[in-house]
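Lab notebook: predicted structure, single chain.

Context: the supervisor wants predicted structures on file for every construct in the current expression panel, including those that have not yet been purified. This is the next one on the list. No modifications to the sequence; it matches the entry in the shared construct table.
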Amino acid sequence: MNKTLLYIIGVIGVFGLWISSGYNTLISLDETVQEKWSNVQNQYQKRSDLVPNLVATVKAAAKNEKDILIGVIDARASATQLKVDIHNAEDLAQYQEKQQGLSQALGRLMMVTEQYPQIQSNTNFLGLQTQLEGIENRISVERTRYNEAVKNFNIKVRSFPLNIVASIAGLEKYEPFKAPKESQKAPDLTHSF
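Prediction complete. Output recorded below exactly as produced.
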């Protein structure tokens, strides 16, 4: 074999190793994003699973707050029925909107419970309220972790020369989790619920 052919084979081999290394890096980052999104959804599911217990506990004491209880139940149903493609900004925004609706409904439920001292002294309710607060904190942490994974993936997918590998492999950038525009305004606490 002549040296030119060996050089060509060597360059092709190095190029092949570079492509496979870049591809493996992108796949690893893609899997990390998928894992972080699953963690976000897991926390939302925990919150959703807690809702019926909260509603049942409050329902027993606050019979005349039927509209708020129905609102929480409807918001939970709406938030759990949506399927999300995390590459699609509209799907992600709609999912966030539904989850925000559930958060607002739960907020109204918590405000109602302040009017009923028997609920506030109920140890079952207090335990559920503590669990809900913990889940809300974990949701925030998981959304932050998801956004960090999305950022790392998107940097690689958009950076040369891995953007070529990403394009060949059909890997697209992800949408980060963004707070709805309504959440950027301070809540109006002058109206009673």
